[in-house]
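[recover] target loaded
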């Protein structure tokens, strides 16, 4: 038995190491390949401090920040989906199930359509609200939506089924409001709004990566603390309490973490679909139900999926790049069907 356990642990470590290597290779590939045709030697020269000004600008100011932003967003969405699927015991759960995506969508819609200009008192000067506020606005909207759903579920029962039903209902209302506003009012920023709604890494900069980074660090720091609770939250409340779990506290902490990760990602890059739904299923398909392996594998797969999806969109669309949200929507459906066919 000891030998069998050792072999299993070795295989698990090897699987995780393989996907970490794949994630690193995806990062390297995304840096070297793009719409702008830059020879590999020039790309290497940029990192040694001898690259041309053009290569320096493309690599350091365009490709690298959008890659890093995409990796962080992919990790956020994938981990948020895994947590929500565990605590709600719903295999179809993703950030939209808690209304986070819809809340961020409504907040960004209001920001872009109705707060385009501000007037200073006693002056005719008009200033446009900066688009740099967009990630923060989306994050706040997502967190508020998650908070509303949590409070409704708390008053009712705080059971997984009630959380799911509240999320679906509130999310539908928020989505309907956002669509109604978009249909009823035009804006000079409509193009920006439509791009954000499709889920895109276009023009993402180091500022976007810096906005996400604190959430990533905090989220990854909390994950080891909730690893065992996540295993127990898959059971009903009475069973989980019989193992000594403080069900309400751990349930609330897991929901808070998932909402914070999802809201920050959606606020920064838009509602990229299928990442939070498919990546956890793929991780469990590869690693089984061992949460100690599923968690890091989900992180690696989230980074790989977004990095390669964005690269495919850039290469296929060339100058008119295809948003990553469209790429994941098209490719996600057959992957999900294949996973469901192989899952008992």
């Amino acid at each position: 038995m000891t030998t069998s356990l050792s072999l299993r642990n070795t295989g698990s470590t090897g699987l995780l190491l393989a996907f970490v290597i794949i994630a690193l290779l995806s990062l390297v590939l995304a840096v070297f390949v793009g719409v702008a045709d830059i020879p590999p030697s020039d790309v290497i020269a940029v990192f040694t401090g001898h690259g041309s000004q053009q290569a320096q600008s493309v690599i350091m100011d365009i490709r690298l920040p959008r890659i890093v932003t995409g990796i962080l967003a992919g990790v956020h969405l994938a981990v948020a989906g895994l947590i929500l699927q565990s605590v709600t015991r719903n295999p179809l759960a993703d950030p939209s199930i808690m209304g986070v995506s819809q809340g961020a969508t409504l907040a960004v819609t209001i920001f872009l359509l109705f707060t385009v200009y501000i007037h200073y008192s006693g002056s005719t000067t008009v200033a446009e609200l900066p688009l740099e506020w967009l990630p923060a606005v989306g994050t706040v909207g997502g967190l508020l939506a998650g908070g509303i759903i949590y409070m409704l579920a708390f008053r009712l029962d705080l059971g997984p089924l009630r959380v799911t039903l509240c999320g679906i209902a509130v999310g539908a209302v928020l989505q309907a409001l956002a669509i109604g506003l978009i249909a009823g009012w035009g804006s000079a920023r409509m193009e920006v709004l439509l791009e954000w709604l499709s889920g895109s890494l276009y023009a993402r900069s180091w500022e976007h990566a810096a906005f996400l980074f604190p959430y990533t660090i905090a989220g990854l720091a909390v994950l080891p603390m909730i690893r065992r609770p996540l295993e127990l939250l898959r059971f009903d409340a009475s069973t989980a309490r019989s193992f000594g779990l403080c069900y309400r506290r751990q349930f609330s902490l897991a929901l808070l973490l998932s909402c914070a990760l999802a809201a920050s990602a959606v606020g920064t890059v838009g509602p990229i679909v299928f990442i939070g739904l498919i990546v956890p299923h793929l991780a469990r398909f590869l690693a089984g139900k061992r949460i100690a392996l599923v968690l890091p594998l989900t992180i690696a797969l989230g980074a790989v999926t977004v990095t390669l999806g964005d690269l495919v969109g850039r290469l296929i669309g060339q100058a008119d790049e295809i948003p990553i949200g469209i790429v994941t929507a098209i490719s996600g459906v057959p992957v999900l069907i294949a996973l469901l066919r192989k899952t008992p």
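[recover] notes: Residues 1-8 have pLDDT under 50 and may be disordered.
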